[in-house]
Amino acid sequence: MSSDMTKAGSAVTAYQVNLPVFEGPFDLLVHLIEKNKVNIYDIPIAQITAEYLAYLRQMEEIDLEVTSSFLLMAAQLLAIKARMLLPKPPKAPVDDDGEEAGDDPRQELVDKLLEYRKYKAVAELLRSREVEQIAVYGRVVDPSTMSHLFQEENPLEGVMLGDILAALRKVLNRQEKEEPVADIPREEISIQVRMQELLEYITTRPKDDPVVFSSIFHEHRRPGEVIVTFLAVLELVRMKKIRAIQRSPLGEIYLIEVPVS
């Protein structure tokens, strides 16, 4: 007999009551509403209050700490239940749905439950995103190994600014040594017009016969025209319409078209 009692005692000792853990009173209320499949806008307050209090009693029986927030919610539920039991005033006004209008004691609780469910859904979404992000491993990339993918094409391939200025200086010196036959004023040309003329001239040349930098000044002997032509070349290079290439040190500078990508 003592053996049977020992077995029974060990069985009682091994038995454990597992209660679901809720983050707070609103979490418990939402659980009860969803478990009973009731409309949150029409909560059966007596049933929900009874189940809520039963859960608190189970928490006390297994020595779980019942926090003040759970007790405060229990008091609010009992207060709402008491207000629901009060007789309604006679001849209450009727709304558009044919129901008696007036303040519903449950309305404030419903509003808080709806707001809680909204924030809980957002929290669950963020938690799932966090789990997904934990499974992602980033690869450390050395920027120096990727820099060649973002380098812009140099429109002055092999050409220094000093080389272009030296070529311009040669053109100006050659123009000053030539003795002018007559001084005939002519209409000044703008940089924009000269850019268009140069671009058309360069783009119409065969690819195997690029334009020599010094040759574009042959028809423009006056210093002002030389300067305008030089500025037009620089602007076209800046806009990446043309490229300046020097194939050998101190060699000729060639102007070629930049193909449209």
Could you explain how this protein is built, in words?
- This protein has 261 residues and is mainly alpha-helical.
- It has 9 helices and 3 strands; from the N terminus they run H-H-H-H-H-H-H-H-E-H-E-E.
- The chain has helices spanning 2-14, 25-36, 45-61, 68-85, 107-134, 143-146, 161-177, 191-203, 223-238, and strands spanning 211-212, 242-246, 253-257.
- The chain has a 3-stranded antiparallel sheet with strand order 1-3-2.
- Strand 2 and strand 3 form a beta hairpin.
- Helix 8 crosses helix 9 (223-238).
- The N and C termini lie far apart (97 Å).
- 12% of the residues are buried.
- Mean pLDDT is 76; it is low at 1-17.
Summarize the helices and strands and which ones pair or pack.
Blueprint (H helix, E strand, L loop, with lengths): L1 H13 L10 H12 L8 H17 L6 H18 L21 H28 L8 H4 L14 H17 L13 H13 L7 E2 L10 H16 L3 E5 L6 E5 L4
Antiparallel strand pairs: 1-3, 2-3
Strand order of the largest sheet: 1-3-2
- The computed structural class is mainly alpha
Major sheet characteristics: 3 strands, antiparallel
Compute the number of helices.
9
Shape: rod-shaped
Overall mean confidence score, pLDDT? 76
Low-pLDDT regions: 1-17
Range of strand content = under 5%
Oligomer: single chain
Order of helices and strands: HHHHHHHHEHEE
First-last Cα distance? 97 Å
Number of strands: 3
Using the CA coordinates, give the radius of gyration.
45 Å
- In helices, the fraction of residues equals 40-55%
